[in-house]
Amino acid sequence: MASSYAYQEDFTQMSRHSLFQLPVDKSKKYGQRSKLCWNNSSPTKEGVQPKGFVTFSLTDGPEYHVSQVANAVLVAKYLGGTLVLPEIIGNKGEKRRFDEIYDADKFITSMSGVIQVEAHKHHEASTKKSIDVKVPYNANRNYIMNNVGPIFQTTQNVRVISYFPSSTTKLAEVDKDTNPYSCWAMFEALRLKPELQKVVDSIVGSLRSRDPSGQFVAIDYKTGMLGTSTCQSNANEGMKNCYNPVEIAQFLQRIGYPRDSTIYVTQSKADRSLSLLKDLYPKTFTKEDIMQEAKMGETSELEQEIIDFHICSVSEVFVPAKSGLFYANVVGNRIATSRIDVLVPAQITSNLAQDHVSSFIAKASHPAYACFC
């Protein structure tokens, strides 16, 4: 997958591309999972025993999880190791077991025949010293064999720490296209646990029920976003890489979204920053609005981030407020289910939605396109 720099570049150059006309009618494939080019239909090799253990953690937010899982799968596959399901560590140190957030049985079953996966460390793994190894996202086989292989042969226990390579990373280290095993791990094996998926489905259903057309727009915006160095920086002669709620509201008005449109904002609860958006679009909701009304139980901050990620992945339209990995990996999820309506605000005067389609979609430049046939 492209570097984080490339994600920002994609965001700021939207208006420079010649974009296609948005379709009037939804495709019959809309919302259905696309067909992966590679599927796990090859027979498992009998008698081949894994040589050691590959461990890792899911850190930061859900936008990182898909990439961290994909990278760990590649390391385990190429080195012939057993992958141990990770613990999850939230942005504020909250720790959860993998099976508290994701469907562990689904993951283990889906990866059968690709790699061996264990839910917990065996005694053998616990007694061996684990060595941390930093691996660039989407590292190729040669990089893994040459840089991680010797350590794994000696210790038989490595802990993968994934990082996103810069635009100057040597092309010999990473693959340009997403590896088929990574595709399988991200888009087939990694699913939410059923209980958490029900929460997502309930919120999505509630939002759609409020709109005459049964649709809603998801906006990824949280207070604090605009105070980061990423948002403060401009690039390409004044092109912006982030937008505040006022600018997004004006953008939606300019491209013709009616006042009664239903909008979901990833901010956990409404505050002053959303005032104009709510004035222009009264049916603007946050998680707190929906969950309190439905009398849903409390959720942790980590669970809220994961809920946001998956709501943005299934909304009829997605509008990111800033560039970054959340935006990029939500688009990847949307491509997997043919939900290609992703609109990016830009400093151009056009009032046509098709002039604001993400170039990930318009140019089919997102790495996820390599996964599907």
Written account of the structure:
This protein has 373 residues and is of the alpha/beta class. The chain has 15 helices and 11 strands. The strands form 2 sheets. Strands 1, 2, 3, 4, 5, 6 and 7 form a 7-stranded mixed β-sheet that branches. Strands 10-9-8-11 form a 4-stranded parallel β-sheet. α6 (141-155) links the parallel β6 (131-136) and β7. α4 (104-111) packs antiparallel against α7 (180-189) and α8 (194-209) packs across α13.
Strand content: 5-15%
The helix/strand order is HEHEEEHHEHEHEHHEHHEHEHHEHH
Shape: globular
Report mean pLDDT, rounded to a whole number: 83
Low-confidence stretches: 1-5, 11-25
Number of helices: 15
Task: Give structural attributes.
373 residues; alpha/beta; seven-stranded mixed β-sheet
Quick rundown:
This protein has 373 residues and is of the alpha/beta class. Helices cover 38% and strands 12% of the residues.
Annotate the secondary structure layout.
Elements (H helix, E strand, L loop, with lengths): L3 H9 L40 E7 L2 H18 L2 E3 L2 E3 L5 E3 H4 L2 H8 L5 E2 L4 H5 L3 E6 L4 H15 L1 E7 L16 H10 L4 H16 L7 E4 L8 H4 L12 H10 L8 E3 L9 H6 L3 E2 L1 H7 L7 H14 L2 E4 L4 H12 L22 H4 L11
Parallel strand pairs: 1-2, 1-3, 1-7, 2-5, 6-7, 8-9, 8-11, 9-10
Antiparallel strand pairs: 3-4
Helix pairs in contact: 2-6, 2-7, 2-14, 4-7, 8-13, 13-14
